[in-house]
Fold this sequence. Notes:
Layout: H1 3-6, E1 21-24, E2 31-38, E3 46-56, E4 59-69, E5 78-89, E6 94-103, E7 115-129, E8 132-145, E9 150-163, E10 168-179, E11 190-199
Antiparallel strand pairs: 1-2, 2-3, 3-4, 4-5, 5-6, 6-7, 7-8, 8-9, 9-10, 10-11
Amino acid sequence: FGAGAGRVLFQNLGTRVDNAIQYWSPSFSGFQVRALVAPGEGTTARQQGVLLGYAAGPIKAGVSYEEYAEPPTGGSAYNKVLTVGGSYNFGVATLGLGYQNTKDFGTNLAESGVIGDVNAYNVGVLVPFGNFEFRAQYTHSKVDLDAGGSNKNDKYSASLRYALSKRTTVYTAYLHRESDNDGTVNLNGSDQFLVGLGHNF
């Protein structure tokens, strides 16, 4: 529901990138390397990134770096994002932790001229019981403002899912977000309540 609205917490540059070339290495003792380049073809900025992941037994972890490079109007690379995260499955619950740093927001983004560096931290837990699955997470970010000073943002969320079948799930979720500086571009607080039905085809 709006990529920009969540960008100052934890960025997601998009789960889909047009005209991308990807490489996934074989897994070596749980380690895998992935790389992506999307040339942009002179109409959009080139996107590029690399990820080193590890998955074995109850442990999953990864570190990635991604950026927009060579904007069509010229200039240097921007929106440089370093992300580190991992999770451990204890059996009764899975605990996840993450950290992200973003530098050099570019002129293509709504925050240009408003936001400098962003540091964000996340902790979450997933608890399955029967056909139910409970999830909760907390995210904190500190945003350096170009005009001086900083802004702190906090987001709390919880969701409950129930599997009606192997492919159909009903869910409800609530999220609360608060900010030091409501009203600044993409820094305002909000509350959302969601109810939905998901089906995998």
